[in-house]
């Protein structure tokens, strides 16, 4: 484990601090304790202290320490930043083959820290540019999900290297960042690539605003074919028969009865979980002629929706049987219980978030692929996919009609969402008598 500490090693009343870097290694049974130090330019007041028993062979010796209480607030903050910077430098550089811990490395790392600290252009840090991007997105009233992506990126960069500057984001740095996300932090490949895409967006914006960004960032390929696994996309939906089984369950618990109502609304309106719980409510129903319509603006896209209430949804509204409010977390928990009781338990191998332990001992939630009963994968978003899949694939409804419910803007986007191949040659087969 790497540690950074500071020591006063002078007999004068005030002098610069010495910085110590220590790292203990146990490699295949060979133990090694590395200790290196350099003198900083952080000058502090020294104080006299009497030695503890056995502190020195010379009785009554007087040693110097440094007065932490009198240290300026700015210097205290600087020491904390320096400690974090050196630790991050070690974590980052130790991944490169041939890296050696020595005095020269510590000295150069400290020099880099000073150049960063002395710079008046604080916005040159990547985390600062991300924060600026977040403020711009909020001002432009972009979707909450778009803003959350950059807020998540801020957290990731702070874990990786909070002092990473725009001028350091070249191709090797991005390669190292990707390796860190995949190997050390155990992020999924898609998650890592989304973060890298967003960093490149930040870099392009920074270049247009006159920031010093290496040209190498554009050469970096986010999607590296050498690390991609070719696998079929697994899309989990409820079938018509499975929905019928859930509807026929004899339930006694009120919370499960309420969750089933939300499930029925979901599989017959095609809305995302958040929109389902917020907007599929009696206040948004309107009668036009002999039919009832549901109108609202989607939270993710901001698209205005207005679609007909299908029979089971309409009847629930007319019979005053609409479900009461529930959190998305509770709904996801209860619908799994519903599906388990309906024996929707076919074994499926797919990703699902679980608690995993990183090499540093930290516990995080990450996607883990393994075989589980189908009910474990069912969430409120499954309702939306089920509606689209059933009505397009099973009931053969034209995609443009299904899209009136789902809100997809293009056929290509819709077909990708339900995992359907866009290569439909049926009309050519009819023309050339190939059927």
Secondary structure topology:
Blueprint: E1 2-7, E2 14-27, E3 30-49, E4 63-66, H1 73-93, H2 103-118, H3 126-139, H4 144-160, H5 171-184, H6 189-208, H7 216-219, H8 240-247, H9 254-267, H10 273-279, E5 285-288, E6 291-297, E7 304-308, H11 311-318, H12 328-341, E8 347-357, E9 363-373, H13 380-394, H14 399-406, H15 411-417, H16 426-431
Antiparallel strand pairs: 1-2, 2-3, 3-4, 5-6, 6-7, 8-9
Give a written overview of the molecule.
With 435 residues, this protein is of the alpha+beta class. It is built from 16 helices and 9 strands. It folds into 3 domains: 2-118, no CATH class; 122-219, Tyrosine recombinase, N-terminal domain (DNA polymerase, domain 1); 240-338 and 374-408, Intergrase catalytic core (hpI Integrase, Chain A, Orthogonal Bundle). The chain has a 4-stranded antiparallel sheet with strand order 1-2-3-4. A 3-stranded antiparallel sheet has the order 5-6-7, with no helix packed on it. Strand 6 (291-297) and strand 7 form a beta hairpin. Helix 5 runs antiparallel to helix 6 (189-208), helix 9 (254-267) crosses helix 12 and helix 13 runs antiparallel to helix 14 (399-406). It is elongated.
Q: How much of the polypeptide forms β-strand, as a percent range?
A: 15-25%
How is the CATH topology of the largest domain named? Answer: hpI Integrase, Chain A
Q: Under the CATH scheme, which architecture of the largest domain would be assigned?
A: Orthogonal Bundle
Please estimate the helix content.
Answer: 40-55%
How would you spell out the order of helices and strands? EEEEHHHHHHHHHHEEEHHEEHHHH
């Amino acid at each position: 484990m790497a540690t950074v500490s500071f020591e006063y090693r002078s007999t004068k009343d005030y002098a610069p601090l010495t910085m110590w870097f220590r790292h203990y290694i146990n490699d295949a049974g060979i133990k090694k304790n590395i200790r290196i130090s350099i003198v900083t330019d952080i000058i502090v007041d020294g104080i006299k202290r009497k030695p503890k028993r056995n502190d020195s062979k010379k009785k009554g010796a007087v040693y110097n320490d440094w007065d932490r209480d009198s240290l300026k607030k700015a210097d205290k903050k600087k020491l904390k930043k320096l400690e974090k910077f050196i630790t991050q430098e070690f974590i980052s550089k130790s991944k490169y083959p041939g890296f050696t811990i020595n005095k020269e490395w510590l000295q150069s790392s400290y020099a880099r820290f000073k150049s960063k600290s002395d710079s008046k252009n604080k916005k040159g840090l990547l985390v600062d540019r991300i924060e600026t991007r977040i403020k711009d997105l909020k001002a432009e009233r972009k979707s909450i999900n778009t803003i959350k992506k950059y807020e998540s990126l801020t957290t990731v960069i702070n874990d990786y290297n909070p002092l990473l500057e725009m001028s350091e984001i070249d191709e090797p740095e991005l390669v190292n960042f990707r390796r860190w996300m995949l190997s050390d932090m155990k992020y999924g490949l898609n998650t890592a690539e989304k973060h890298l895409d967003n960093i490149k967006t930040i870099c392009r914006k920074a270049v247009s605003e006159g920031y010093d960004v290496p040209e190498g960032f554009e050469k970096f390929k986010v999607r590296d074919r050498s690390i991609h696994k070719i696998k079929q996309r697994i899309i989990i939906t409820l079938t018509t028969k499975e929905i019928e089984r859930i509807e026929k369950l004899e339930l006694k618990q009120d919370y499960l009865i309420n969750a089933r109502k939300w499930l029925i609304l979901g599989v017959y309106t095609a809305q995302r979980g958040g929109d389902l719980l917020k907007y599929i409510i009696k206040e948004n129903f309107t009668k036009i002629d002999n039919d009832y319509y549901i109108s609202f603006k989607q939270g993710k896209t901001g698209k205005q929706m207005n679609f007909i209430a299908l029979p089971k949804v309409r009847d629930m509204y007319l019979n005053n049987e609409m479900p009461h409010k529930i959190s998305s977390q509770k709904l996801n928990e209860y619908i799994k219980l519903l599906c388990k009781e309906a024996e929707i338990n076919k074994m499926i191998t797919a990703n699902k978030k679980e608690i995993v332990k990183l090499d540093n001992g930290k516990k995080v939630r990450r996607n883990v692929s393994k075989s589980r009963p189908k009910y474990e994968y069912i969430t409120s978003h499954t309702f939306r996919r089920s509606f689209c899949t059933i009505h397009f694939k099973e009931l053969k409804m034209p995609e443009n009609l299904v899209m009136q419910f789902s809100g997809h803007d293009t056929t290509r986007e819709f077909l990708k969402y339900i995992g359907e191949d866009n290569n439909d040659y049926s009309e050519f087969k009819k023309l050339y008598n190939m059927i």
